[in-house]
Each structure stands twice: as C-alpha cells, then as structure tokens.
Amino acid sequence: MTENGNLEIGALAGQLLEEALGEELELLHSLPHMEGTPGIVWNEERARATPCHCTNDICFSRGIIGTLSAEQRTWACNPRLEVERPGLRRRMERWRQAVEKCRARLQQEAPVDGPKRIETWLTCMSAELRGLRDAPA
C-alpha cells in the first residue's frame, strides 16, 4: 500500500473513532464544568506538546479533560488551531449549550451527595447532547 493510502486509512480510522466515541468523549469533557472549574490537567507534557483546537473561546487540548481556562490557553495553545470544519464548530457550540443548560438544571435540583450529583449531570448532558445532535442545524 502507498504512503498516501496509509494516510487515508489513518484519517478514516480517526474519523470513525471520533464518531464512535463522540458522546462518551463529550460527556468526559463536560465533567469539569459541572462545578464550573477549568479543564483538569492529566498530562501537562502532552498538553504543552500538542496544539489546542478552538472555536471562539472554547478550546480543547490533548492532556486536559474539559475546556481550557484563559490561563491554561496561555501555555497549552502552542499553537492554537481554529476549528474550520462547520460540522465540528456546530458540535462544539451545541456542547456549550448543553453544558449551560445542565449547569442551570443542576443548580435547581442540587443533589447533595457526590454520586447522585454526577449521575444527574451525566444524565442531563447525555439527553441534551442527543437532543441537540438530532435538532436541525
């Protein structure tokens, strides 16, 4: 197989993986926002070594779970890549809408114990993401 063929297969595999893990990754990245915190750095070296992908003020970086705070963007966005694909930009904006709705819902319901709070958050995010994904563009 040619090098170009390998690149095409790699790109297709990456796209399929992204689609298959889409909702699970979106749910994982939403967890820090349950309490309004910045992204959780799990691998600072990787975050510094890879670009961040942004649309407006939403930025994601490998090595950080959740979106980056303004301070995190100063050291993790080297370089900062603006997302240009319309579908991905729309998906990121819909993710932000789901976070805002679920944060408001969580404040209204306010379960006291940790596990119930996380369950409420993830249930809400899952339902919102599914509803937004099915909504017309």
Report what the structure shows.
The structure is a single chain. The protein has 137 residues and is mostly helical. It has one domain (22-134). The chain is built from 5 helices and 5 strands, in the order αβαβββαβαα. The chain has a 3-stranded mixed beta sheet with strand order 3-2-5. Strands 1-4 form a two-stranded antiparallel sheet. Strand 2 and strand 3 (58-61) form a beta hairpin. 17% of the residues are buried.
Structure characteristics:
63% helix, two-stranded antiparallel ribbon, 137 residues, mainly alpha, 11% strand, disordered N terminus, 3-stranded mixed β-sheet, single chain, globular
Helices, strands, pairings?
Blueprint (H helix, E strand, L loop, with lengths): L2 H28 L9 E2 L2 H6 L2 E4 L2 E4 L2 E2 L4 H7 L3 E3 L3 H24 L4 H21 L3
Parallel strand pairs: 2-5
Antiparallel strand pairs: 1-4, 2-3
In short:
The protein is mostly helical. 63% of the residues lie in helices and 11% in strands.
How many separate domains? 1
Distance between the termini: 38 Å
User: Would you tell me the overall average pLDDT?
Assistant: 78
Number of strands: 5
- Trace the largest sheet across and list its strands: 3-2-5
Main beta-sheet annotation = 3 strands, mixed
